[in-house]
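anyone seen this seq b4? input:
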Amino acid sequence: MIIAGLDPSLTATGWGVIRAEGSRLSFVAAGTIKPPSALPMPARLAILFRQASEMLAAYMPQTGAMEEVFANQNPQSTLKLGQARGAVLAAMGAANLPCAEYAPRFVKKALVGTGGADKRQVRAMVERLLPGAQIDSYDASDALAVAITHAGLAGQEKRVMHA
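predicted toks r here
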C-alpha cells in the first residue's frame, strides 16, 4: 500500500510517501511545499492545494494521513495553520483519498517512544526506518513520520475522514 503523509503549514508543508508491505516499509519520495510569504493568503493557499494535488497525482497513494491541528498561544497562528490544513485536506478530498489524523504527540510517541521528542529525534528515527530516504527538511521528516505511524496502525481503529 502506498501512503502519503502530510505535515501542513502555511510556510512549509512537508509531504512524504512510503510503501508499506506488511511490516516492511520503504521510502518513495518526500519534499516541502513553500509558498512565498510575500504572496496574498489566497495565492499561498492555492499553491498548497495545487502542489499537494500534483504530488498525490504523481505518486497515487491509496490513503493519506496528516497531523491534527494544535492550538497555539496566538489565535492568528492557529487560524493560519487551519487554513493551510484546509487547502491540503481539499487536495486529499479532490483525489478521493481517505485521510487519517494523528496528534503530533501521538506520532512522536509512536516513532520515538516519547511524545516530547524533538524534530532531530523524529528525523533520526525516520532515517533509521527508511534507509536511503532523501529528506530535505524537518517538515518532510515529520510528514514521513505521520505516514509511518499510519502504516503501523493499519487495520486498527483510527480517526479517518473519508473524502
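Confidence is low (pLDDT under 50) at residues 155-163. The longest helix spans residues 75-94. kinda curious what u guys think
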